Amino acid sequence: RSAATSTLGLGEDIGVIPLDSGSLGQTDHDGYIHDLHVTFLNNPAVPQIQRAMLTGKPIPEGFYSSTSMKLTLHSIVITSMTFQDHEGEQTVSLSINFTASKFEPVR
Question: Is 22 within 8 Å of 64 (Cβ atoms)?
Answer without folding.
Answer: yes
